[in-house]
Amino acid sequence: MNCKRILLKLSGEALSGDTGYGIEPQVLDRIASEILAVHKTGVEVGLVIGGGNIFRGVSASVKGMDRVSADYMGMLATGINALALQDALERHGMKTRVMSAISMNEICEPYITRRAVRHLEKGRVVIFACGTGNPYFTTDTAAALRANEIGADIILKATKVDGVYDKDPNKHDDAVMFSELSFLEVLKDQLNVMDSTAISLCMEEKIPIRVFNITVKNNIPDAVAGKNIGTLVS
């Protein structure tokens, strides 16, 4: 697949490395160097980043916190990650913009679709922070929404597992990884790719999703190049 514009979805946990919490500078630096390799090929890069390495709204709400407040706290966590990623990318010589679904004018731009597309056309890496700006919607849904709005050719979902399995590979030794899946299979079997809202949106707009392991070196450039890594959902 020849990609002109991609949407890279990074989990917040990906930034924490082996620590499980916070931001690991070495991990951030490696991710930035791989994004640079992609950017040098002329591919336009948009990024959506989660906040689970700092705060996870769903987990907090399960423990009794108001869901709306918890989700807004999670959105602010994605803002912290976006600024950290911006710093790493700019240290590698890339021009970047952070665009937030929640107004934070002192530190980033408000999200406006046309402006985001213009930044991409000018060769800037655009980092989309704060999800959709609405509680009850995940950053996976934000990734599907932003990918559609900017006209991305594919969503690359970078996780800490090799791809999509029939069951949790961390709990089951006999878990089987899929190389390809259809959107309907993902929805019918409730496979853990993205939430059903994100999958439904991608299915309707025909945007493929590739799920792969970000902890493996050079997987981001390889995924963009169309190499058969992880799981392709289409």
Key words describing this protein structure:
234 residues; globular; alpha/beta; Carbamate kinase; 8 helices
Account of the protein in words:
It is a single chain. The chain has 234 residues and is an alpha/beta fold. The chain has a domain at 1-153: Carbamate kinase (3-Layer(aba) Sandwich), CATH 3.40.1160. Helix content is 38%, strand content 19%. The chain is built from 8 helices and 11 strands. It has helices at 25-40, 57-62, 67-91, 113-121, 139-150, 183-188, 196-205, 219-224; strands at residues 5-10, 44-49, 96-100, 109-110, 125-129, 154-159, 164-165, 177-178, 180-181, 209-213, 231-233. The strands form 2 sheets. Strands 4-3-5-2-1-6-10-11-9 form a 9-stranded mixed sheet, with helices on both faces. The chain has a two-stranded antiparallel sheet with strand order 7-8. Strand 1 (5-10), helix 1 (25-40) and strand 2 (44-49) form a beta-alpha-beta unit. Helix 1 crosses helix 3 (67-91). The mean pLDDT is 93.
